[in-house]
Design goal:
The complex is a heterodimer of chains A (181) and B (382). Chain A has 181 residues and is of the alpha/beta class. Helix content of chain A is 40%, strand content 20%. In chain A, helix 2 links the parallel strand 4 and strand 5. In chain B, the strands form three sheets. In chain B, strands 2, 3, 4, 5, 6, 7, 8 and 13 form an eight-stranded mixed sheet that branches. A five-stranded mixed sheet of chain B has the order 10-12-11-14-15, with helices on both faces. A two-stranded antiparallel ribbon of chain B has the order 1-9. In chain B, helix 3 packs parallel to helix 4. Chain B is globular. The chains are: A alpha/beta (181), B alpha/beta (382).
Chain lengths: 181, 382
């Protein structure tokens, strides 16, 4: 398989780190791939802008950080401004229309989606915004199967919240499928 | 889903391994970037019948695990640089009184409170010489979660075998990243249990009288034997002595029990060393970037190899000498100003062949950083 180098960025509390962990865990535990996840740490992780790196591959991963992501998610304007220059030329850059105004000068395919407003309209709970983003991510990249994410969610999420998360994941998958790459 | 496969942080791998090895007492004071170890054990230990105590500081933490070990428990504490500094006096007490214990130092940038949230490997020499007086010490490290598991179990085994504190020098990068960990079945890794005295109740027990094989069987303190334990030079009863012969024999014993076994204690991994023109020597997280470079350049036909050290103290000088003997150049990759570089220079004995690839700005060294140094050494410019 192609080596996926992914960066998820946003502000503390949006759940980008959690989404990154769920994705990497699905790759390792369910799909028997290799994955390494790391995150920015410190004051930045508590309200400022936050970043999580994920590498997924079917071979060994040694250097654990991402220098040039081929898939980049930015959920805030500061995160976008900080990280759009690092995207690998030809990569895929996902943003939320509500939070990010994109630049033209980016040498990547930019996908702008109204993930936050779709979550608010169809589910009504902003806490599953990150899971919707994760749905878009796996839909665009095909890096893991949706069932693998679901299995991890079943392990990690309290039963009462599972349906909410499943809905958000499916919403994201649908939104991603509608994008023509 | 395979039950024994986990996707966890390095700190959690250390916790799983400590419990696997039989840890049943932890005292500590949480500090970044080691806090997850205390956090996880505060739940896991009471649940498995062990004891977890959050102490008032690191001095007390170190003293508590020494006391608990003496009463027959397998013990550990976890900290980072500032806390490790506070533990040094009691660490020396554990060396002198020969009490098995494991101290995890998840390294962050120093000196002082330094840079708590970023990685470093600046405590290598502190682990060796942080406590005063001649002594020997065991320090192990690891670059990935499977090795963290194995080295943590090894640390507990060495602590019991040699009756000594063992230091686990991990770093923020490996401690906080998540990757696969396969937890071995019980029995897969050997475990060394406490060697207890066969002297029965009512008969004099000499706590510092070695058996024929040199080992010192222990008696759980507070149990059936009364005996003395002191940080002063002591005789076979454990009572203070200034007798020159006693002093001389004890310091020789404390040093020789480890320094005479350097090769047996040496854990290391080697990659592509058979025909390597350029040998990278690295350890801990830095070895991940070094291995990345070696594997990538091998694909292009460059003869690079990696010696990854897992035992840092006692320093495996014969191993390093032998593995670097045929190299045109040796590049030590580490996250400090050259602490292991100096040791490699002494071990190889040819200092003009030895170079340093390091980073000291809190940023994890990248394969590109190492490549730049390599290019300079090869005379290929930057």
């Amino acid at each position: 398989m192609e080596r996926f180098r992914m960066v998820f960025s946003g502000s503390g509390g949006q759940g980008v780190v959690t989404a990154a962990i769920i994705l990497a865990e699905a790759a390792v535990i369910i799909e028997n791939l290799n994955a390494v996840q790391s995150q920015s740490y410190g004051a930045a992780a508590r309200g400022g802008s936050t970043r999580s790196d994920v590498i997924i591959a079917d071979s060994a991963i040694h250097y654990p950080k991402v220098i040039q992501p081929n898939f980049l998610v930015c959920l805030t304007q500061p995160a976008y401004n900080a990280y759009y220059p690092i995207i690998r030329p030809g990569g895929l850059l996902l943003t939320d229309q509500r939070f990010v105004n994109t630049e033209d000068k980016v040498d990547a395919r930019q996908v702008e989606l109204p993930m936050h407003s779709a979550v608010m309209e169809q589910i009504g709970k902003p806490i599953v915004f990150n899971i919707c983003m994760l749905g878009v991510t796996i839909s665009l990249t095909q890096v893991v199967q949706p069932e693998s994410i679901l299995k991890v969610l079943e392990e990690r999420i309290p039963e009462g919240f599972l349906e909410l998360n499943q809905k958000a994941l499916n919403l994201g998958i649908e939104m991603g499928a509608a994008v023509k790459i | 889903m395979e039950k024994n496969v986990k996707f966890v942080q390095g700190n959690e791998a250390c916790v799983e391994a400590a419990l696997y090895a039989g840890l049943n007492f932890f005292a500590g004071y949480p500090i970044t970037p080691s806090s997850e170890i205390a956090e996880l054990l505060s739940g896991r230990l009471p649940a498995s019948g062990g004891k977890f105590i959050q102490m008032e500081d690191e001095i007390a933490s170190m003293c508590a695990i020494i006391g608990a070990s003496l009463t027959g428990n397998k013990v550990m504490t976890a900290t980072s640089g500032p806390g490790f500094s506070l533990m040094q006096e009691a660490l020396g007490y554990a060396v002198m009184t020969e009490i098995p214990c494991v101290i995890v130092n998840v390294m962050r940038g120093g000196p002082s409170t330094g840079i708590p949230t970023h990685g470093s490997q600046g405590d290598v020499n502190q682990a060796r010489w942080g406590t005063h007086g001649d002594h020997s010490i065991l320090a192990l490290t690891a670059s990935n979660h499977q090795d963290i598991f194995e080295m943590t179990v090894t640390a507990f085994n060495m602590a019991e075998t040699y009756r000594t504190p063992v230091i686990l020098l991990f770093d923020e990068i490996v401690a906080h990243m998540r990757e696969r960990l396969v937890i071995p079945e019980f029995g897969e890794l050997p475990l060394v249990e406490r060697l207890r005295t066969s002297v029965s109740e009512g008969i004099d027990y000499h706590p510092y009288l070695p058996r024929e094989d040199g080992r010192l069987p222990m008696s759980d303190f507070g149990g059936v034997h009364r005996y003395n334990v002191t940080g002063l030079y002591h005789d076979m009863w454990g009572f203070p002595s200034t007798e020159p012969r006693v002093v001389h024999e004890l310091i020789r014993h404390l040093v020789d029990k480890l320094e005479n076994r350097v090769n047996r204690l040496a854990h290391y991994k080697e990659y592509f060393l058979e025909d390597a023109e350029y040998v990278l020597v690295s350890y801990g997280s830095a070895a991940r970037s070094a291995l990345h470079v070696v594997k990538e350049r091998r694909l292009r036909g460059e003869r690079l190899g990696l010696l990854e050290l897992q035992t840092l103290w006692p320093f495996p000088k014969e191993v390093v000498h032998e593995k670097c003997a045929g190299a045109k150049a040796v590049i030590v990759v580490e996250l400090n100003m050259g602490q292991v570089l100096q040791l490699v220079k002494m071990a190889v004995g040819d200092p003009e062949r030895i170079f340093l690839a390091n980073r000291i700005d809190g940023v994890f060294i990248t394969p590109i950083d190492i490549m730049k140094i390599l290019r300079l050494i090869q005379g290929k410019g930057v």
